[in-house]
User: What shape does this take?
Amino acid sequence: MEIVAHGIDLVDCPRIEQMLEHHGERFINRIFTPAEQAYANANKNTTEKLAGRFAAKEAILKLMGTGWRGKIAWTDIEVTNNDLGQPNVTLSGEVKRLADELGIDHISVSITHTANFVIASAVALVQRQREST
Assistant: This one.
C-alpha cells in the first residue's frame, strides 16, 4: 500500500455542543449515521465522540480534495470502531464514487481528543501493483 493523500482537522468540542443545543436531531441525523449515533450515545462523553466523527469526516474530505460540496452527504462517510477501538472508515454514495475515481483502496483514520478539542488525521492508501522485471 502507498500513501497518496493526507487530511487533518481540528474541532472545538464546545462548537459541536452548540450545534447539538441549537439544531438537535436535525444536526445529528444530517451528519451522523445511526451506527455513529449509537456509538456516541453509549459513551459518557457523547459530545467528544460526535466531535471526533465530525473531525474524521472533515479530514477525509480534505484528503480527497473536495471539501463538503455538490452531491456529497455527511453520511456518505461512516466512522465506526473495531473490537480494539480502532476507527474504521466505510464510504458510500458520492464519496465512494470519488474515492474509486481517485483509486483509493483504504482510508486509515486516527482520532484524539480532550474535553475541548478533537484532532482527526486521515490517510488515503492505494494498492500499487509491482511491475515485473
